[in-house]
Design brief:
The chain has 269 residues and is α/β, with parallel strands linked by helices. The chain contains 9 helices and 8 strands.
C-alpha cells in the first residue's frame, strides 16, 4: 500500500455509537430537504449560463445543507475572506465538506474517485476541486505543485491531511506533503477544528456522523438524518502566517489540533 493511502482502524460497528432517533417520516423529510438543496445548487453551478456564485451565498447554502440534515451548526472564529489560504481539518464525516465551505468557499483536494460520483462529481469539478490519484505516489509532487499554484493565485484550498476518515474519538496524524504547497506559495495555513456532539450530552463527542470503514454514503446520510440533537461545532483557529515555520514537518505539527477534550455545549443550542 502506498504511503499516500493511510487507513483508519475505525469501523461503523466498532466506533459508531447509539443515538436518539427521530421518527422515520421526519428523517425522510430531512433527506428530501438535503436532496432539494443539493440539486438546486447543482442546477445553478452546472448551468452554462451561471457566473461566479458570491461567496456569501455559497457559505449560506452549505450551512443550510447541514441544517437540513438535522444538524445544528455553531461556528466560532472567521477565516480571511480573500487571498491564498490553506484550510486544514480532521476528517470525520461527509458533513465536513459543507462545514468547511461554510467557513470559506474553497477548492477541495479530493480523491480522483469523487470525479465519477453522480451529481457530486460534476459539482466538485465545476467548483474547482483538485483531484489526486492516491494510488499513484509519483503523482504526488504534481499534485502539490497544482495546489501551490492555486494558492499562489489567491484561491483557498481545503484539505483533510489525515488522508482518511476517522470516527471523531480517535484521530490520525496530519500528513506533511500538502503543507509544502503552502510553504511554496507563501500563504497562511488556517486550522479548523470540527467536532460533532450530542445536545443530550454536550461533553461527549458523537460518532453518529462518522463515515468510516466500509460504511456507505447512503447509510451514513440516513444515520445523520435519523438522529436527534446532533450539533456540529466549527472552531476556526488562528491562522499560521507564512514564514513562521521553515519546513513542512513543523508546519503540519503546528496545524494539527490537540486531542478533543470534553467541553459542554452552550445553552443557546
Amino acid at each position: 500500500m502506498s504511503g499516500w493511502l493511510p487507513t483508519a482502524p475505525c469501523t461503523p460497528a466498532g466506533c459508531v455509537g447509539p443515538a436518539r432517533t427521530a421518527a422515520a417520516p421526519f428523517a425522510v423529510l430531512r433527506l428530501a430537504a438535503v436532496a432539494a438543496l443539493v440539486l438546486a445548487g447543482a442546477a445553478v453551478v452546472l448551468s452554462p449560463l451561471s457566473g461566479r456564485v458570491p461567496a456569501a451565498v455559497v457559505r449560506r447554502w452549505c450551512r443550510w445543507i447541514v441544517r437540513a440534515a438535522g444538524v445544528r451548526v455553531r461556528i466560532t472564529g472567521a477565516a480571511a475572506p480573500a487571498g491564498g489560504l490553506l484550510l486544514v481539518a480532521r476528517h470525520v464525516s461527509w458533513l465536513d465538506v459543507p462545514l468547511l465551505a461554510a467557513v470559506r468557499p474553497a477548492r477541495m483536494l479530493a480523491k480522483s474517485e469523487v470525479r465519477r460520483w453522480p451529481v457530486a462529481g460534476p459539482l466538485a469539478a465545476r467548483g474547482g476541486a483538485l483531484f489526486i490519484e492516491r494510488d499513484r505516489p509519483r503523482a504526488l509532487p504534481d499534485t502539490v505543485a497544482r495546489v501551490a499554484r492555486a494558492l499562489g493565485g489567491g484561491a483557498a484550498v481545503a484539505v483533510f491531511p489525515e488522508g482518511s476518515t476517522w470516527c471523531g474519538r480517535a484521530h490520525g496524524t496530519f500528513r506533511r506533503a500538502v503543507f509544502q504547497a503552502a510553504l511554496d506559495a507563501g500563504v497562511p495555513v488556517q486550522p479548523v477544528r470540527l467536532r460533532y456532539r450530542s445536545a443530550w450530552d454536550g461533553r461527549a463527542v458523537s460518532t453518529v456522523p462518522a463515515f468510516v470503514g466500509e460504511d456507505t454514503l447512503l447509510a451514513s446520510v440516513w444515520r445523520v438524518a435519523s438522529a436527534r440533537g446532533l450539533v456540529a461545532e466549527v472552531e476556526v483557529c488562528p491562522a499560521i502566517p507564512p514564514g513562521r515555520h521553515s519546513d513542512r514537518r513543523s508546519l503540519a505539527r503546528a496545524a494539527q489540533p490537540d486531542g478533543d477534550e470534553g467541553r459542554a455545549l452552550p445553552k443557546s443550542l
